[in-house]
Amino acid sequence: MEYYDRAFKGAINAKYTQEEALANELAAEFYFSCDRNSTAEVYLLQSYYSYIRWGAKAKAKDLETRYAEFFSKVLQREQREIDITQISTLSKTTGSIAAIDLATVARALQAISSETNSDRLLSRLMHIAVQAAGASKGLLFLMDGGRLQLVAEGSVDAATRLVSPVAIVTLSNLPISLIRYVERTRKTVVLNHAATEGIFTNDSYIRNTQRKSIFCYPLLHQEKFAGVLYLENNLTTGSFTRTNLEVLQLLASQVSVSLFYVA
């Protein structure tokens, strides 16, 4: 895992698109062999779009053939050119990102894959996460010195704001018990109506604010806990549906990968 990541990072830094594509392809094959499909799909999509950027259309077609089931789903609406602002519009009008194909999100993520400045990377990642998920609010927590710390926040109505790392134990305007649960168990939590269902109804933040839809995802890299991506939508219940969870998990996996590359 470490060597695949070093190869990918080195290719990006050297601007060797062909080696970036190859490193991603081989990493995808490795993760598929380990039954870590969500991680493998991130590398596979990065490889696919790297080959296209390089101009190796035959190689991109080869991936489509070898992973036909996956790419038939990803590319079924490839002709629809939707940028990140259109993702936001669709999310607001549909209340879901079910109408958004994986290729759209992949194209948005590809735009940041070569970002090597950590502050710009955090800002872009949070912007895409909030917009693509149709979330009202998004928070990114990362481990630093053995402590989980808030490093970035964004909302649908405001620009992403990077914050000086703040230890989660000092924050009161967050669902601390939920975030700690995800940190401890490394399990994804999806709540359709956080104020009335699940084991976090007594969390002071959830109880006082009557939060609705919540998505909380553990960020893992090479099996190690790296942080938490937290998204909420207080306009509608059931905002993060089974239909769009696949895209959200793919997005969160990319967050883990991208953050490691600029570490």
In short:
Helices cover 52% and strands 19% of the residues.
Describe this structure in words.
The protein is an alpha+beta fold and 263 residues long. The protein is built from 11 helices and 6 strands. It has helices at 2-14, 17-33, 37-54, 57-66, 68-74, 84-94, 102-110, 118-133, 176-185, 204-209, 242-261, and strands at 137-144, 147-155, 158-167, 189-191, 213-221, 224-233. The chain has a 6-stranded antiparallel sheet, sandwiched between helices. A hairpin with a 2-residue loop joins strand 5 and strand 6. The longest helix has 20 residues, at 242-261. The chain is globular, with a radius of gyration of 18 Å. Residues 77-101 have low confidence and may be disordered.
Keywords:
alpha+beta; 52% helix; 263 residues; 6-stranded antiparallel β-sheet
Helix-strand blueprint:
Elements: H1 2-14, H2 17-33, H3 37-54, H4 57-66, H5 68-74, H6 84-94, H7 102-110, H8 118-133, E1 137-144, E2 147-155, E3 158-167, H9 176-185, E4 189-191, H10 204-209, E5 213-221, E6 224-233, H11 242-261
Antiparallel strand pairs: 1-2, 1-6, 2-3, 4-5, 5-6
